[in-house]
From TrEMBL:
Species for this entry: Graphocephala atropunctata
GO annotations of cellular component type: cytosol
The keyword NADP is assigned to this record: yes
Name under which the protein is recorded: Enoyl reductase (ER) domain-containing protein
Keywords on record: NADP
C-alpha cells in the first residue's frame, strides 16, 4: 500500500507544513540536539480554550515516561487534524482537561524502548527506528511523546517525516470505514462524499486499490481536479443540490451506490440513504 501513501498527503500537509514552519508555533522551535534527556521538554500547550493565540510554546513541560507496552518517540513532525482545532475551541463532543497538549499523530524516532513490552515480531522496535504513532490521548505537539506499541508503525526510509505525520488518522479512518465496516469489493460503486479532504482523499485511493468504481465529490474547481488526479472515476460538485442524481446519470447502467463513505453525515445522511 506504499504507492497509495505516497500519493496521499497533499491535503493534510497544507496544515502540517504551516505548523512545522519557522513560525513561533513551528515544531522547528521545539527541536534540540539529542543529548542526555532531561526530565522536561518543549511543547505547545493550551491553558484556556479559544483561537490560535491560546497555543503557547513552553520550555519546562514534564517529559513523558514510557511504561510496559510503550515506546518514547522524539517527534520530528506532528500532524494537524480538524479535531485539534475543535478541541482547542471547546467545540468537540467532550471537554478535555487543561492544560492540554494537542495533536493525535506524529512521526519521529524511537529513543527508548521498555524491555519486555512485546513478543510480536512486527512490533519489536529499537532506538533509532523511524515510526509513526497515533496518540489516543493527544500530546503530539511536543518534543517527545509516549506511544503504545500497538499504535506504532514503522516509517519507510523513502517516506518523509512530514508525509508520515499526515498518514495515520486520515488513512486509518478511511480504511476502517471502507474495508472493516463496508467491506467494499472489486467493481462495486463507491461514493466518497467530501473527497477533497484528508479522509476523502485517502478513501478514494483505498477504494481504487481494491478495484472499486469511485465517485468523489468536492465543492471547488481545485478540489474536484485534485479528486480526479488521485484516481476518482467520476467527480461531481456537492454544492449542487442535484449532484447525486447527476452522478447516477453519468454512470452507465447505474442502479445506485453499493457503498457510501460520508464525511459530513449531519448534512448529507438523509440524501445519502436515498441514493
Amino acid at each position: 500500500m506504499s504507492g497509495i501513501i505516497l500519493k496521499s498527503v497533499t491535503c493534510s500537509l497544507c496544515l502540517l507544513n504551516t505548523f512545522t514552519s519557522s513560525s513561533p508555533l513551528g515544531l522547528s522551535s521545539l527541536r534540540s540536539p539529542l543529548k542526555k534527556m532531561n526530565s522536561t521538554m518543549k511543547a505547545i500547550r493550551i491553558h484556556s480554550f479559544g483561537g490560535p493565540s491560546v497555543l503557547k510554546v513552553e520550555n519546562d513541560v514534564p517529559r513523558p515516561v514510557p511504561s510496559e507496552g510503550q515506546v518514547l518517540v522524539r517527534v520530528q513532525a506532528a500532524g494537524m487534524n480538524p479535531v485539534d482545532a475543535q478541541m482547542r475551541e471547546q467545540a468537540f463532543s467532550y471537554v478535555p482537561k487543561l492544560p492540554l497538549i494537542l495533536g493525535k499523530e506524529v512521526a519521529g524516532d524511537i529513543v527508548e524502548v521498555v524491555e519486555g513490552n512485546t513478543t510480536d515480531l512486527d512490533h519489536q522496535y529499537k532506538p533509532g527506528d523511524r515510526v509513526i504513532c497515533c496518540l489516543p490521548c493527544d500530546s503530539g505537539y511536543a518534543e517527545y511523546v509516549v506511544c503504545n506499541v500497538a499504535d506504532t508503525l514503522r516509517l519507510p526510509s523513502h517516506v518523509s517525516y512530514a508525509e508520515g505525520a499526515a498518514i495515520y488518522v486520515a488513512y486509518f479512518t478511511a480504511y476502517r470505514g471502507l474495508i472493516t465496516k463496508l467491506k467494499i469489493r472489486k467493481d462495486e460503486l463507491v461514493l466518497v462524499h467530501g473527497a477533497s479532504g484528508a479522509v476523502g482523499m485517502a478513501a478514494v485511493q483505498i477504494a481504487k486499490a481494491v478495484g472499486a468504481v469511485v465517485v468523489g465529490t468536492a465543492g471547488t474547481d481545485e478540489g474536484r481536479q485534485m479528486v480526479k488526479d488521485i484516481g476518482a472515476d467520476y467527480v461531481v460538485n456537492h454544492r449542487d443540490s442535484l449532484h447525486l442524481a447527476q452522478a447516477v446519470d453519468m454512470i452507465p447502467n447505474c442502479k445506485g451506490f453499493d457503498a457510501i463513505l460520508e464525511n459530513r453525515a449531519t448534512k448529507n445522511l438523509a440524501m445519502d440513504l436515498k441514493a
